[in-house]
Amino acid sequence: MPTLVIHGDDDQVVPFEASGKRAAAMIKGAELKVYPGAPHGFAVTHAEMLNKDLLAFLQG
């Protein structure tokens, strides 16, 4: 099952090391995208980047 894990490296609510990094490592073949400086609410603060990455993943 194709899986995309996206996480901000400045998430103060759910730290990257404890969540996104571990999830991607546990899911065979997962694609990991880390947004530099992105907080927990990266869907708002990094919406353009997120939309671009989601579309590319879904089309890919």
Provide structural commentary.
It comes from Pseudomonas syringae pv. coryli. InterPro entries: AB_hydrolase, AB_hydrolase_fold, Peptidase_S9_cat. GO terms for molecular function: serine-type peptidase activity. Pfam families: Peptidase_S9 (PF00326). This is IS52, transposase. It is a single chain. The chain contains three helices and two strands, in the order E-H-E-H-H. The protein is α+β, with helices and mostly antiparallel strands. The chain has one domain. A two-stranded parallel ribbon has the order 1-2. Helix 1 links the parallel strand 1 and strand 2. The longest helix is centred in the C-terminal third of the chain and has 13 residues. The radius of gyration is 11 Å and the shape is flat. The model has no long low-confidence stretch (mean pLDDT 97).
Radius of gyration: 11 Å
Average pLDDT metric:
97
Structural class: alpha+beta
Strand order of the largest sheet: 1-2
Distance between the termini: 13 Å
Strand content: 15-25%
* Helix and strand pattern: EHEHH
The number of domains is: 1
* Total strand segments: 2
Global geometry? flat
Low-confidence stretches: none
Number of helices: 3
Query: What percent of the residues sit in helical stretches (DSSP H or I)?
Result: 40-55%
Profile the largest sheet. Answer: 2 strands, parallel
Domain Peptidase S9 prolyl oligopeptidase catalytic: 2-59
InterPro entries: AB_hydrolase (IPR050471), AB_hydrolase_fold (IPR029058), Peptidase_S9_cat (IPR001375)
GO biological process, one term: proteolysis
GO molecular function: serine-type peptidase activity
